[in-house]
Amino acid sequence: MKIGVIGGGQLGRMLALAGTPLGMNFAFLDPAPDACAAALGEHIRADYGDQDHLRQLADQVDLVTFEFESVPAETVAFLSQFVPVYPSADALRIARDRWFEKSMFKDLGIPTPAFADIQSQADLDAAVASIGLPAVLKTRTLGYDGKGQKVLRTAADVEGTFAELGSVACLLEGFVPFTGEVSLIAVRGRDGETRFYPLVHNTHDSGILKLSVASTDHPLQALAEDYSSRVLKHLDYVGVMAFEFFEVDGGLKANEIAPRVHNSGHWTTEGAECSQFENHLRAIAGLPLGSTAKVGESAMLNFIGRVPPVEQVIAIADCHLHHYGKAFKAGRKVGHANLRCADMATLNAQIQRVEALIDEA
């Protein structure tokens, strides 16, 4: 089976690493000349809206998926005329637009922060008067890793902010006084079978995920699965989806969804019976889903900007290095380390050792 992937970054690379043992081959469509997934398959260098090259991809693969939601929904809809594409264009259209996303949560009875659609500075001024401060203004599309957003704490922060974010459609969200940030990685097959990984505790730095730690028997696991199931069924979703939540007053408020494999699920490569990457491929290919059970205690630490010396990383017991082969650049995710330990005390100690290497890099 040959899988086409829209996007050739590290997520596509890790999908190929998971699919190769299953006898799958890969082709990546990505405009970047140095797409890091290209080492794992054919690289079709073209823009995501280039219909001639999209048709070329469709003609040579059995099905198509995508590695991130910056892909236009129109691209997925076009490809769907010629080859199965999972997740669907409708799922992508909703997940990539914060207004559609939050409106869906509201319709499905899933708690969210207060929010408002912003099309102008006047809209922003009116929404701030209604929702109050502090609040967060985010572009409706294309924002990730802290990009395309601004925290508004005072009236001075509000003035001119719509233009500051590019005078594009935005969403204002009320600030949530959360006690923690968690994510749930779910996978749903073509037949509707659904499985969930354990909730993950996430720590961010400057809007970029820094650390994810898989939980054991989290008290909000069942609630997270309930909310996630509503979305998966509503979208008739196929593949892996990540759900990000705020822990608030002993419950959960939905932050956002990602219609793809996700950074907070990277720990599953060594820390679960079947990784999120393999399960995504199983789901879209119509194969039986794998077990999402944990193997030991696990965590993931991102390498931002540069990877510490390889020999130092792999010298740490229970540590597994994932180097993306990307040029080092400030603010860029260039690799991560997965830790899998027998107990939490050991895991916490090893996290500190990797964090020390990151600080020295």
Automatic annotation (TrEMBL):
<feature type="binding site">
    <location>
        <position position="181"/>
    </location>
    <ligand>
        <name>ATP</name>
    </ligand>
</feature>
<comment type="pathway">
    <text>Purine metabolism; IMP biosynthesis via de novo pathway; 5-amino-1-(5-phospho-D-ribosyl)imidazole-4-carboxylate from 5-amino-1-(5-phospho-D-ribosyl)imidazole (N5-CAIR route): step 1/2.</text>
</comment>
<dbReference type="InterPro" id="IPR003135">
    <property type="entry name" value="ATP-grasp_carboxylate-amine"/>
</dbReference>
<feature type="binding site">
    <location>
        <position position="138"/>
    </location>
    <ligand>
        <name>ATP</name>
    </ligand>
</feature>
<keyword id="KW-0658">Purine biosynthesis</keyword>
<comment type="subunit">
    <text>Homodimer.</text>
</comment>
<dbReference type="InterPro" id="IPR011054">
    <property type="entry name" value="Rudment_hybrid_motif"/>
</dbReference>
<dbReference type="InterPro" id="IPR054350">
    <property type="entry name" value="PurT/PurK_preATP-grasp"/>
</dbReference>
<dbReference type="Pfam" id="PF17769">
    <property type="entry name" value="PurK_C"/>
</dbReference>
<feature type="binding site">
    <location>
        <position position="98"/>
    </location>
    <ligand>
        <name>ATP</name>
    </ligand>
</feature>
<protein>
    <recommendedName>
        <fullName>N5-carboxyaminoimidazole ribonucleotide synthase</fullName>
        <ecNumber>6.3.4.18</ecNumber>
    </recommendedName>
</protein>
<dbReference type="GO" id="GO:0034028">
    <property type="term" value="F:5-(carboxyamino)imidazole ribonucleotide synthase activity"/>
</dbReference>
<comment type="similarity">
    <text>Belongs to the PurK/PurT family.</text>
</comment>
<feature type="binding site">
    <location>
        <begin position="173"/>
        <end position="176"/>
    </location>
    <ligand>
        <name>ATP</name>
    </ligand>
</feature>
<keyword id="KW-0067">ATP-binding</keyword>
<feature type="binding site">
    <location>
        <begin position="255"/>
        <end position="256"/>
    </location>
    <ligand>
        <name>ATP</name>
    </ligand>
</feature>
<dbReference type="InterPro" id="IPR040686">
    <property type="entry name" value="PurK_C"/>
</dbReference>
<dbReference type="GO" id="GO:0005829">
    <property type="term" value="C:cytosol"/>
</dbReference>
<dbReference type="GO" id="GO:0006189">
    <property type="term" value="P:'de novo' IMP biosynthetic process"/>
</dbReference>
<dbReference type="InterPro" id="IPR005875">
    <property type="entry name" value="PurK"/>
</dbReference>
<comment type="function">
    <text>Catalyzes the ATP-dependent conversion of 5-aminoimidazole ribonucleotide (AIR) and HCO(3)- to N5-carboxyaminoimidazole ribonucleotide (N5-CAIR).</text>
</comment>
<feature type="domain" description="ATP-grasp">
    <location>
        <begin position="102"/>
        <end position="285"/>
    </location>
</feature>
<comment type="function">
    <text>Catalyzes the ATP-dependent conversion of 5-aminoimidazole ribonucleotide (AIR) and HCO(3)(-) to N5-carboxyaminoimidazole ribonucleotide (N5-CAIR).</text>
</comment>
<dbReference type="Pfam" id="PF02222">
    <property type="entry name" value="ATP-grasp"/>
</dbReference>
<dbReference type="Pfam" id="PF22660">
    <property type="entry name" value="RS_preATP-grasp-like"/>
</dbReference>
<feature type="binding site">
    <location>
        <begin position="143"/>
        <end position="149"/>
    </location>
    <ligand>
        <name>ATP</name>
    </ligand>
</feature>
<dbReference type="GO" id="GO:0004638">
    <property type="term" value="F:phosphoribosylaminoimidazole carboxylase activity"/>
</dbReference>
<dbReference type="GO" id="GO:0005524">
    <property type="term" value="F:ATP binding"/>
</dbReference>
<keyword id="KW-0436">Ligase</keyword>
<dbReference type="InterPro" id="IPR013815">
    <property type="entry name" value="ATP_grasp_subdomain_1"/>
</dbReference>
<dbReference type="InterPro" id="IPR011761">
    <property type="entry name" value="ATP-grasp"/>
</dbReference>
<keyword id="KW-0547">Nucleotide-binding</keyword>
<feature type="binding site">
    <location>
        <position position="204"/>
    </location>
    <ligand>
        <name>ATP</name>
    </ligand>
</feature>
<dbReference type="GO" id="GO:0046872">
    <property type="term" value="F:metal ion binding"/>
</dbReference>
<dbReference type="InterPro" id="IPR016185">
    <property type="entry name" value="PreATP-grasp_dom_sf"/>
</dbReference>
